[in-house]
Amino acid sequence: QVHLVESGGGLVQPGGSLKLSCAASGFTFSLYDMRWYRQPPGKEREFVAYITNSGGTTTYAASVQGRGTIYRDNGKNTVYLQLYNLKPEDTAMYYCYSTYRSTWGQGTQVTVSS
To answer: Which residues contact 96 (CB under 8 A, 6 or more apart)?
Structure first.
């Protein structure tokens, strides 16, 4: 059975940083591209970052460009999203997504507030 399990969310002060993790199981993780999305309160889900299966190519939404890093460890079947200089507008539920069968995780909440 395919699973994506996010973790690492929480309450962070503006200017802080956070590392989100997404642990995958049930498929050959190293063969598939991965993405992070987020859904702010009352808004639609939006793209955050993308990484190819090898980790050789990454792409970011303009909203996190320069403040986020996506990377993966294929040996641990895990993809990460490191966020820096967090702003209140980064408050959202963060989801990871696999191109394997268009699989979504359950999400992890990030709240940026003083």
So the answer is: 4, 6, 20, 22, 34, 35, 36, 37, 79, 81, 104, 105
